Amino acid sequence: MMPESITIGVVGLGTMGLGIAQVFAAAGYKVLATDAHEPARANARARLRAALEPRVAKGALTAEAMEATLANLTVVDVPEALALASLIIEAILETLPAKQTLFAALEAVIAPETVLATNTSSLSVTAIAEGLNHPERVLGLHFFNPAPVMKLVELVAHPGTTEAALTLARTATETAGKTIIACPDRPGFIVNRCARPYYGEALALLEEGRTASDIDASMLAAGYRIGPLSLIDLIGADINLAATEGLQAAIHHPRYHVFDVLKAQVAAGHLGRKTGRGFLFPDVPAAAPKDAAEIALRIEATLANEAAWLLSEGGVTSEGIDKALKLGLNFPRGPFEAAALHHADLVRETLERLEAAAPPHLKTRYLPPST
Predict the structure, then answer these.
(1) Is residue 367 part of a domain?
(2) CATH of the domain at 345
(3) Which contiguous run of DSSP H or E holds residue 93?
(4) Domains identified in the chain, total number
(5) How far apart are CA 299 and CA 257, in angstroms?
(6) 10, 96, 180, 299: least buried by Cβ within 10 Å?
(7) Is 364 exposed, middle or buried, given 0-12, 13-18 or 19+ CB atoms closer than 10 A?
(8) pLDDT tens, 149-189?
(9) Which pLDDT belongs to residue 1?
């Protein structure tokens, strides 16, 4: 698919929406973008220029390419002005009513074959499509932040999504330089679900008395770019809490237990970098403890177990899960690759030991999907 053959629409010009618009505009697509808030529309081009100019200064982007990207972006006043777009991606408020209302309004003005994509990270794509005249053209295109940098995009089909809609979304996004991983419409999709043990098991260790420094230093020693508690500090403890609570509400399993130490952190307002204090921030991990390998094994074993649960439900591959975790979170290896590195027997023994020692509220947390 040549970029000049279709127009991309983007609704929402916050950090994520503007980043998505940049991705397609930089790839040569004509992009029509809008936002409900006039100031966001008014300063969108200035914000995009400000994002591109440092790359020009470093020599990573030519001035001509920057101007071409800016020229490909047209900001319009209302979503109805996106009627000529072939693919419209929403990156608005993360609430089901807001997304349903937007797509219903768009349906009144767009062609029946126009694809409607949601960038939701937590809502059901099936639910977003409910009530529409053409739910078959609705799908998920979940970009990761920052969208211009992160290569991964999760392509989410609900049971009624047509192959034509999926093909258009996949081709346009891949042409824009992204790596598509297809996944079914399940809570957390791939990355947000399979990443839960990276945070959760670190929080379990913290409640058991291990220090944030020991935990993070152990994962750094195992090749991870950032430890789990430092990652919570980067994302925001409130964001992590909301994501975990969402999965717990959707799946109801101790694998998504909401740890008291996380709730207390949010209640205290120690959300991480954005508030100046987190589990570890502003400090950095010290030297790895003597049992760093055991800590890393424990966390990677639970990562592998969650990935095995998702794989057992169908609609994904082990290769796709591994690639998604590496691209979406910059992990040095995917959960199945980690399991192979440690050997299946050691992973199984680790999970069995954790299950045997688990307190009542965490019982069944470490059981494999075959149990």
Answers:
(1) no
(2) 1.10.1040.50
(3) none
(4) 2
(5) 15
(6) 96
(7) exposed
(8) 999 999 999 999 999 999 999 999 999 999 999 999 999 99
(9) 60
